[in-house]
């Protein structure tokens, strides 16, 4: 190997080491971020369970032993193994929604030591690199709220008992009545409500509750209040924000019930400061975005590595094989006819070298088609269509408008890989004998449309969390704020349309 090749190899190794160092730095950052999330979780009063994609309990944060089983009994167990039938049904329905990216909320009751305990749960999905990886369940014991609401409805004495208990409940209690001039007049407030708002009790009494709400929440909350007064059945579990006396915004969660006090309708609200919970949700959202960004970065690194490897294989290994073939040809010319076995051996070796050269070219093209970098996305898709047609014997029709579409490298790679995934799905699932492909530029977007006359696709297949090909296509479109749609059905074939803005 000459000095130039040695220097080139050293530079390549140095670049690879730098990439590895950067990845280690990113990993350390993520580990530190996860430690921070763990500390936040441990400060919550709510129960937090983390389920893996199979529905097993993988992690938990339990601030108090209010479970019907010891907390360690849950780890690595499936829902069906530890949850009573009535609760398992709610958990499993929510888990199916989570697989489709939906959040679900529900209530349930458990009999613990002969006592009925009520819980409200919020179950949210977790995705890793665009794939469903489990769910997080935040559970709050609402037994005391339920009990106190029941006490209010029964009698004035029960209401007085509620006032005495508010410090133990850990939530603010606010009593509102409508007067001739003020809607939602606060006629009773607890110490906790004074702490949350920053106002003294004297300042709060006589003030409308709705004047404390942020402008974006005020109208909707007042409308619900009026409808309830008129007997409408409206859910009583809401999140909103208030403006403290110092001007800061505080997120709250409110549960309310109407009762009667001194012959007048009264709205009793139980309010929690959910600042910590919102912070956790924000951290989780940021974490998911960071993971998604990291996935995109790794994909770009992978593409660049493919390009480099393909170039090195084609140039260096290809040239080496070509040189070897020349040397072998020179050697063969020096053999006499009497050396028949050696002549045959050199001819056989030459054929092997030719086959190896073709294999090298094929590997390089599969890693990164040179036509994509040299001639652009239109030519690359046309080439891939030809390769697909030769491989599968499926008839293909391709059109591009304009004929040559000029597009940046990142979007070209994204569209090309999406197209390859669509073709892979056609081979695996469609059972088609005709594929029509169009690539066009319209209203500032590049639109790829692929139709096959196969057996079609239904909504369940599109929404299937195990349909990793579809998930991968969606994830490739997401960074460019593009759109993807699937249409068709049994007997109609399938049409996939992908639209990616040229800029943005």
Task: List the strand order in the largest sheet.
Answer: 2-1-5-4-3
**What is the class of the largest domain in the CATH system?**
Alpha Beta
Proper CATH architecture of the largest domain: 2-Layer Sandwich
Count of discrete structural domains:
5
* Largest pleated sheet: 5 strands, antiparallel
Residue share in β-strands: 25-35%
What count of helical segments does DSSP give? 15
String of helices and strands: HEEHHEEEHHEEHHHEEEHHHHEHEEHHEE
Derived from helix and strand composition plus strand pairing, the structural class reads alpha+beta
Description:
There is one protein chain. The protein is of the alpha+beta class. It has five domains: 1-37; 43-140, Beta-Lactamase (2-Layer Sandwich); 145-273, Beta-Lactamase, CATH 3.30.450.20; 285-368; 376-504, Heat Shock Protein 90, CATH 3.30.565. 51% of the residues lie in helices and 25% in strands. The protein has 15 helices and 15 strands. It has helices at 3-42, 79-82, 85-99, 143-154, 156-169, 191-197, 201-204, 215-229, 275-333, 340-367, 370-375, 377-392, 409-430, 459-463, 468-477; strands at residues 47-52, 57-61, 104-112, 115-128, 131-141, 172-177, 185-189, 237-243, 249-261, 264-273, 395-401, 434-442, 445-452, 483-489, 493-501. Strands 2-1-5-4-3 form a five-stranded antiparallel β-sheet, with helices on both faces. A hairpin with a 2-residue loop joins strand 4 and strand 5 (131-141).
